[in-house]
Amino acid sequence: MNENIEFLQAFLKNPGKVGSIKPSSPELAQKMIDGITPNASSAVLELGVGTGAITKFLQNIVPDEHSYLGIELDRDLAHLLKRNFPDLSIVRGNAVDSWSIHQRSGIGRIGSIICCLPFVSLPNEVGERILQQVDRFMQEGDCTFRTFQYAHGYYFPSAIKLREFMRKRYGKARKSQLIVKNVPPAYTLTWNS
Ligand SMILES: C[S@@+](CC[C@H](N)C(=O)[O-])C[C@H]1O[C@@H](n2cnc3c(N)ncnc32)[C@H](O)[C@@H]1O
C-alpha cells in the first residue's frame, strides 16, 4: 500500500498521536539527518518513526544494526516498518519508556535523537514524560537532540514549552530556515549536550 495512504489511515485512527496528515517530505527528512553520523558507540534513536519517511534517509547513513533504534507507538505502523526495514531495530513502544526500551535493546550509547513526535497534540503529561526521557540521554553527554515544529504551531503553548525545556538546559536551539517543501512547512530545531 502507498505510504501516504498508510499514514493517512494511522492519522484517521488516531489524529492526536499521529499529528499530521502526511509523512515528512524528502526535504524535511534530509534536514533532519544533516550532520548526523551514527555508529555503534554513538547510535541514533528515532522517536515516532511513522511510515519511515526519515528512516529511509537514516538507513543510508546507519552503518550497522548496532547504530540505530526506532520507537513507534502505532501497532500497524510498527508492523509495516518491521517489514520495510528488516535490518533496523524498530520497537513498537511508547517514547515515554525510551530509556528502558534502549536499555533492553542492547544498542550502544545514544549520540543523537531524531524526534518526530507531535508534542503539540500530545497530552501535556505525556509530552513532559518524553522530555524527561530525552533529558536522560542528553545528560550522558555528547548527544544531539533534533526535532521539527510546524510553522503554524510554532507559538502553540506546548511547542514553546518544549523549546523552553531544552533552552534552560542546553541553550538556544539552532533553528533551520523554514522548510517550505513540506506539508505543512516546518523548522528543524537542534540542541547539543
Ligand atoms: C508526525 S508523525 C511523524 C512520522 C514520521 N517520522 C515522519 O516524519 O513522517 C508522528 C509519529 O509519532 C508516533 N507517536 C505518537 N506518540 C508516540 C509515542 N508516545 N511514542 C512513540 N511514537 C509515538 C505516531 O504514531 C506517528 O507515527
What fraction, in percent, of the residue positions are helical? 25-40%
What's the Cα radius of gyration?
Answer: 15 Å
Q: What does the overall shape look like?
A: globular
Structural class by helix and strand composition = alpha/beta
CATH superfamily: Vaccinia Virus protein VP39
Give the distance, in angstroms, between the N- and C-terminal Cα atoms. Answer: 40 Å
Give the count of helical stretches: 8
- Secondary-structure element pattern, one letter each: HHHEHEHEHEHEHEE
Oligomeric form: single chain
Mean pLDDT: 95
CATH topological fold name: Rossmann fold
The fraction of residues assigned to DSSP E strands is 15-25%
Specify the CATH architecture: 3-Layer(aba) Sandwich
- Largest sheet: number of strands, sense, barrel closure: 7 strands, mixed
Number of structural units classed as domains: 1
Number of strands: 7
Enumerate the strands of the largest sheet in spatial order, edge to edge or round the barrel: 3-2-1-4-5-7-6
List of distinct ligands in this structure: S-adenosylmethionine
CATH class (first level) name: Alpha Beta
Ranges where pLDDT stays below 50 over 5 or more residues in a row are none
Which short descriptors sum up this protein?
193 residues; Rossmann fold; seven-stranded mixed sheet; 7 strands; binds S-adenosylmethionine
